[in-house]
Amino acid sequence: MKNRIASTVVISSAVGAAFAVGVSLWAQAPAPNPGLNPSQAVAPAGGSANPDTAKAAAKGGGRGRGPAVPAGPTPRLLDGHPDLVAIYGAPNGPVGDIAAGMPIVPCDTPGAVQQGGGGRGGAKGGAPAAPVCREGIPLSAEGKKVLAGQLSKNDPEANCLPTGVPRHSPYPWRIVQDKTHFFFLFEGNIHSFRQIFMDGRKHPADPDPTWYGHSIGSWDGDTLVVDTVGYNDKFWFDFAGHPHSEQLHTIERYTRTDAATLVIETTIDDPVDYTKPFKVTFTARAQPNGELTEYICQENQQDAQHLQGPASLN
């Protein structure tokens, strides 16, 4: 694989892409959206160690806009495909620890990790809540070594760098679409963006390593499937510091199960830091009245350099 390159995400490129895509969407005429019902904002998942996450949580899931939640079935375009175009917000996906997205399994399953339950019930003096166990993350010896050496102050996301895949920031993000691309535009950190090619092209034979890799998409029924290679090894999967190598290959499946819910299932395949491929699943909530606002993480980043200790949620 080629030598790493210093990736520079240009904000004007994202704005230009959004403008071009917005123009093309005039011709798509999606089916009318169902009626909207007001709802409380959902707090971001995890990530209490990151200053930006704490700020976002204090403001109500990003900017305190109190997003409405759409009701009704999955909206569709005239070609029959689900309409994924929307603003999405917390819960976004992996923020604190990707372990929270591992499949739930019986607690006597070999390698299962208890992540909840086992304490007192909801009512005073009630029975203990049933434990919740999930598959353990299959770290390799190399992956365990790298994870053990991660320090909170070195978290790329805390230092205003892109989150990579499958990690999200706790701020809103937007999906836009034209005939040959999907674009994911992120409010958090540096207004970075992803582009997913939908024109049938293949991955380059030797892609330059980048933060978001080279992504090609296709439809599998009602699910958008995004296949990505060509990542650099700089980003972390979460605040907990789960690593990856440049051999990382992800397959994401985006399914809008109803007007409000986008289910994101990501298969992670990295033979260097993990012993086998594994899946994590998270959901994002549509925010029909939401907007992306300017948030420049670097403008007043004074916290990351003062973080102490190993990578952690606490």
Count up the helices. 3
From the alpha carbons, calculate the radius of gyration and give it in angstroms. 20 Å
Which descriptor suits the 3D outline? globular
What's the domain count?
2
Structural class assignment: mainly beta
Description:
This protein has 314 residues and is mainly beta. The protein has two domains: 11-101 and 139-299, no CATH class; 103-136, no CATH class. It is 10% helix and 23% strand. The protein contains three helices and 13 strands; from the N terminus they run αβαββββαββββββββ. Strands 3-6-7-8-9-10-11-12-13 form a nine-stranded mixed β-barrel. Strands 1-2 form a two-stranded antiparallel ribbon. A two-stranded antiparallel ribbon has the order 4-5. The longest helix has 15 residues, at 11-25. The chain is globular.
Detail the topology: elements first, then pairings.
Layout: H1 11-25, E1 36-37, H2 51-58, E2 69-70, E3 86-89, E4 113-116, E5 132-134, H3 141-148, E6 173-177, E7 181-186, E8 193-197, E9 214-220, E10 223-229, E11 249-256, E12 261-269, E13 278-286
Parallel strand pairs: 8-9
Antiparallel strand pairs: 1-2, 3-6, 3-13, 4-5, 6-7, 7-8, 9-10, 10-11, 11-12, 12-13
